[in-house]
Each structure stands twice: as C-alpha cells, then as structure tokens.
Amino acid sequence: MLKMAVLLSGSGRTLDNFHEGIQQGTLAGEIQVVISNVKDVLGLTKAEKYGYPAFHAADSEKTNAYWKNMILILSAWPVTSNYTFLLLDLSVR
C-alpha cells in the first residue's frame, strides 16, 4: 500500500480524486498527511473533513521557509520513513 503525502495550494481537487480512488478501491494507498503552502484554502478544509492531518507550511521568498516547514511537517509522519509516494498538485509553486 502506498503511503502518501499530498501537497496542495487551492481547492483540493487532486486530494478529492485520490480520496475517491482510495475509498472506491481503485487506488491502493493511504494518505498520511496533507500540506498547503497557502493558509486557509479549501483543500485543507477538505482534508480535515476526510480525516487527514492537514497543515499549512508558511512561506517566505527570502528564506525558503516553505520547504523547511514542509520537511519539518513530513518528518513527523510515517510517510518519510518509508517514502513510497509524494503526491504533488502541479499548481503548487
């Protein structure tokens, strides 16, 4: 089974598709965590509704804080110890 982290920046349409695939049995995976580079987006609300841990990784162009914060968040979830899949919404930076 794939252990997945989903990165998003908006409505969470990609998250919806992965969630549906898992629920319908067409995707053998488990979403471990959802991370957004944008605070208070619909995708984070959907993640919480689906029961997935959801986080905002703060950003700063001067310090690359997004990547540092994302790594800190990911390091707390099993997806990092057995990386199988990192699902990235292509609209994220």
Quickly describe the structure:
The chain has 93 residues and is of the alpha/beta class. The protein has helices spanning 13-24, 42-50, 65-74, and strands spanning 2-8, 29-36, 54-56, 85-88.
Topology:
Elements: E1 2-8, H1 13-24, E2 29-36, H2 42-50, E3 54-56, H3 65-74, E4 85-88
Parallel strand pairs: 1-2, 1-4, 2-3
Describe this structure in words.
This protein is α/β, with parallel strands linked by helices and 93 residues long. It has one domain (2-88): Rossmann fold, CATH 3.40.50.170. Helix content is 33%, strand content 24%. It is built from 3 helices and 4 strands. The protein has helices spanning 13-24, 42-50, 65-74; strands at residues 2-8, 29-36, 54-56, 85-88. Strands 3-2-1-4 form a 4-stranded parallel sheet, sandwiched between helices. β2 (29-36), α2 (42-50) and β3 form a beta-alpha-beta unit.
Instruction: Spell out the CATH superfamily.
Output: Formyl transferase, N-terminal domain
Secondary structure category: alpha/beta
What count of helical segments does DSSP give? 3
What order do the strands of the largest sheet run in, or round the barrel if closed?
Answer: 3-2-1-4
Q: Report the count of strand segments.
A: 4
CATH topology: Rossmann fold
How many domains? The number is: 1
Mind telling me the CATH class?
Answer: Alpha Beta
- Share of residues in strands: 15-25%
Major β-sheet annotation: 4 strands, parallel
Report the uncertain regions. Answer: none
